[in-house]
Each structure stands twice: as structure tokens, then as C-alpha cells.
Write a structure and sequence with these properties.
Elements: E1 3-11, E2 15-22, E3 27-31, H1 37-52, H2 60-72, H3 77-99, H4 103-106, E4 114-120, H5 128-140, E5 145-149, H6 163-174, E6 179-183, H7 190-202, E7 207-209, H8 217-226, E8 231-233, H9 240-250, E9 254-255, H10 265-277, H11 291-300, E10 310-313, H12 318-321, E11 336-338, H13 351-359
Parallel strand pairs: 4-5, 4-10, 5-6, 6-7, 7-8, 8-9
Antiparallel strand pairs: 1-2, 2-3, 4-11
Helix pairs in contact: 1-2, 1-3, 2-3, 5-6, 7-8, 8-9, 9-10
Length: 368
């Protein structure tokens, strides 16, 4: 089998998807992170496509190394690793389809049929009462956990931060058993993160994500050492080497790789081996509900070191909600998503819808 074509489409000006076609009529689909979509497309079109044409899609390890080598001299690892992720996921999709097995079979099998997910809110414009009502609404739908993105992005210790107020209202609205996750995207100094973290402990928050700027790994370690609430981090690490720095210097309690950011399934395997050697539990950063979610489901299927609810974006998303690019959705039922059983990623795409989205833009107000 040989690769005959590589195409990257940016859907709704936001979501970069890759289609890799072969001489045996099998197409693999991949997705990369949504930020900087045309940067990812340029990397795929100009750097990765030339080295993929004519190659065997089963050679995922060799192709990943070549993409990493080509990317390492062309720009920062974040931009190039996310682009490589889309290609790598598509290659694994081809392998599963060619062999007639779901992706989890290639990753060691499964020990569960479904994965619990939490409602991840990306809104920052709600009052504490409004957010508490929103969390309670998702609790009624069967979700057992909710993540808020609080604090003021791009600031440090901003006086308008209302994190504790929001968590207090949510706890009142949802009761003691509901898991509340807090992500502040690095908006605190070390001393203030410890202060906020102790208040979150008193409110029974489940985890405290990225409490200090991502470059301050020693500061993260200081926060983690001072608190009993788990500190989570990892969404801005892109390779096994960056994750090594994260776990040795930052010492988070929970590590969060993201398959569409860290170089795809091939590198996620390496990262997971590294993290598990430190005895650390994992959860995934997962804000994209289509290929990213499916790939994570397959990877989680057989692992016992990914024990918690996994992230699922509850915001309106055009290519899922307005004109779906999937022929069959990945539904959330009572707070769980079933692991796909069809070959490869287990997804069937409507390419006409994909091409429509590559030429048109969705309605204003949908999450980008």
C-alpha cells in the first residue's frame, strides 16, 4: 500500500482536517489543534506532504521520525507537532481500516466499553449564579463533573477574578458528590495560586489545572507541594522530552496530554510510557469533539492509568452541531461516550459537508 495524496482542509476557518489517500482506496482522516489553523495547513502542505507521497502508511514510526526531523528545523515544536499529529492520526486510521479492526485493537485492546466524560465549559462571561445553573443543567443530563475556565486570561492575580465565588455557587447547586474542575490557564502567581488552591480544597474541588504560567515549572512544583488538591498540567507540552521536563521539574499530580497537539498517536504512546514510569495518573486535554475525541477514546480503552472523567467540550461547535461532518455522531449518553467499534477511528465522514465547511463560514457565536 502506498500514499497517493495528502490534503488539508480548514473547516469553518478554524478546524484543520487531513485526508490521506492510498492506492488501495483507503482514506485515513486526521485532525490537528484548532489554534493557528493555516499555520498547520502550511506545514502539512509544504513540509510533510512531500515526504509522505509514495510511502507505506503502515510505517508510522519511521514517518513520525521524519516529520519530527523535518519540522525541527522549520519552526517551534508546538506548531509543527500539532501539524504532525493530524498526519499521524490519519495513518493509524488507515492501518485500522486496512486490517479491519478498530484502533484500540492496535493499541493493546480494551478493558472498558465506554469512557466517562466531564462537561468542559469554555465560557468566561457568566456570573457565578449563571455558571452554577449551567453546571446543574449538565448534571441533570447525566454528567458527573464540570470544568470551569476561570480567572482572567493573560493576566496574573487580576482583581476581577471570581473563581472561588463560582465554585462556591456550583457546590451549592450540584451537591457534594459532583466533581468540579478548575482551570485558570496560568493566571496566578505562586503565592496566590497556593491561596486559591487552599480555598478550593475547602470546597472539595476535584483538580486545579495550570495554576501558574506554563513556563514556571518550579513554581508549579511549589504549588503542588503546598496543596492536597491535585494539580493538573500538560496541554502545552508537545513531545516526550517536554513531558519529561514537566513531570521532573513541574511535578503535577495529574498529567494531561492531547493527541492533536503532542504529535499524534505515535508520540502519545511514548509520552504515556514516560508518564506511567513515574506512577502518575493521566487524563486528556480534549477540546475538539470529533477525531480528537475518538482517538482519545481508543487510547484510553485499555489503560488503567487514565482513571478519571475525560474532557468533552460542551460549547456549540459548527462542524458537529450545524452541518455535521460525521455521518453518525459520537453521542454523550448519561455522561459517557462508547468506544467506536468500526475499523480505524470508527468514524464515517461526509466529505461533501467537509468541503462545504472549507469554503464557507458558520454562524457567529459558535466556539472557535
Amino acid at each position: 500500500m502506498k500514499i497517493t495524496a495528502v490534503e488539508c482542509l480548514v473547516l469553518d476557518e478554524t478546524y484543520p482536517f487531513v485526508m490521506i489517500r492510498t492506492d488501495e482506496g483507503i482514506t485515513g482522516y486526521g485532525e490537528t489543534f484548532r489554534r493557528g489553523p493555516y499555520v498547520q495547513k502550511a506545514a502539512i502542505d509544504t513540509i510533510f506532504e512531500p515526504l509522505l507521497i509514495g510511502r507505506d502508511p503502515f510505517d508510522t514510526e519511521a514517518l513520525w521520525r521524519e516529520m519530527f526531523k523535518a519540522g525541527s528545523v522549520a519552526g517551534p515544536s508546538g506548531a509543527l507537532q500539532t501539524a504532525a499529529a493530524a498526519v499521524d492520526i490519519a495513518l493509524w486510521d488507515i492501518k485500522g481500516k486496512a486490517l479491519g479492526v478498530p484502533l484500540y485493537r492496535l493499541l493493546g485492546g480494551k478493558s472498558r466499553d465506554r469512557v466517562r466524560v466531564y462537561a468542559s465549559s469554555l465560557r468566561r462571561d457568566l456570573s457565578a449564579v449563571e455558571e452554577a445553573k449551567r453546571a446543574a443543567k449538565f448534571q441533570e443530563q447525566g454528567f458527573t463533573a464540570y470544568k470551569m475556565h476561570s480567572a482572567v486570561p493573560g493576566a496574573v492575580d487580576h482583581p476581577d477574578d471570581r473563581t472561588i465565588e463560582h465554585v462556591r455557587e456550583m457546590r451549592r447547586a450540584t451537591g457534594d458528590e459532583f466533581e468540579i474542575l478548575v482551570d485558570v490557564n496560568g493566571a496566578y502567581s505562586v503565592h496566590h495560586a497556593i491561596e486559591i488552591g487552599k480555598a478550593l480544597e475547602d470546597l472539595g474541588a476535584f483538580h486545579f489545572e495550570q495554576p501558574v504560567p506554563v513556563t514556571n515549572l518550579e513554581g508549579m512544583a511549589a504549588v503542588a507541594d503546598a496543596l492536597t488538591i491535585p494539580v493538573a498540567a500538560g496541554e502545552t507540552s508537545y513531545t516526550r522530552w517536554e513531558f519529561l521536563e514537566l513531570v521532573t521539574r513541574g511535578r503535577p499530580d495529574i498529567v494531561q496530554p492531547d493527541v492533536v497537539k503532542c504529535g499524534g498517536i505515535s508520540e502519545l504512546i511514548n509520552i504515556a510510557a514516560l508518564i506511567s514510569s513515574y506512577g502518575l495518573p493521566m487524563t486528556v486535554h480534549n477540546t475538539q469533539p470529533i477525531i480528537s475525541t475518538a482517538a482519545h477514546l481508543h487510547w484510553i480503552a485499555g489503560r488503567n492509568d487514565v482513571p478519571y472523567a475525560q474532557e468533552y467540550n460542551i460549547e456549540p461547535i459548527s462542524i458537529r452541531d450545524d452541518r455535521p461532518i460525521l455521518k453518525e455522531p459520537l453521542p454523550v449518553i448519561d455522561g459517557y461516550i462508547e468506544i467506536p467499534e468500526k475499523p480505524g477511528l470508527g468514524l464515517e465522514f461526509d466529505e461533501a459537508a467537509m468541503r462545504w465547511w472549507s469554503e464557507n463560514k458558520g454562524e457567529p457565536g459558535h466556539q472557535n
